Amino acid sequence: MSTESPRADLSAPGFLSSSTSVLMSKANNLFVEIFESAMEPFGLRSKDFAVLTAIDAMGPQSQQQLARTHGIDRTTMVSVVDGLERLGLVQRSRDPDDRRKYAIALTGEGVSLLRHKLGPAMLSALDAFLTPLSPDEREQFNRLLWRLVHERDGAAASANGNGRARQR
Fold first, then answer.
1. Alpha carbon distances (Å) from 8 to 13, 21, 23, 127, 167
2. Cα 150 to Cα 31: distance, rounded to the nearest angstrom
3. Please, where are the H alpha helices in 6-162?
């Protein structure tokens, strides 16, 4: 493990090199780069993986539901689903609860690819991303991220009175 400062390779000047928001953005960009490389051999992108895993976990969903769940623009979601359908990984069928909508479901090929190849490729990408951390640090990192995402009690929103948490 390197004793070099985590800021040593950042190009941002001064206080920005240790800014939480800059570091989170750089970490996200790094993971996306690693993950996109892992998906490339399959002709897929990270958005494709997110859609496939959402359908696998929650069953058939409308494009609108998928777009909302993942913060993907509706137009972009149409092209993601179109691409996955062309590859034979998903299929559209009329939603039995609302005939105006289509439900997007995984095909057998989509399930097989996701579980046997894409899932392991994602885990390998995550392992590559987390390489600098020990197993204990990885667990702690995951716990902290989970808290940041799921344990919102309104304290951050009221911290500066305008509903937006102050960031370093």
1. 11, 17, 12, 23, 22
2. 21
3. 20-39, 46-58, 63-70, 74-86, 108-113, 119-129, 135-150, 155-158
CA distance 62 to 19: 38
CA distances 155 to 24, 142, 152, Å, are 21, 21, 7
What token pair was written down for 28? 């996200």
The residue behind tokens 């390489």 is: 131
How far is the CA of 35 from the CAs of 91, 99, 129, 160, in angstroms?
Answer: 25, 36, 9, 36
42: helix, strand or coil:
helix
pTM of structure: 0.74
pLDDT tens-digit readout, 11-65: 556 666 678 888 899 999 999 999 999 999 999 999 999 999 999 999 998 888 8
CA distance 9 to 23: 11
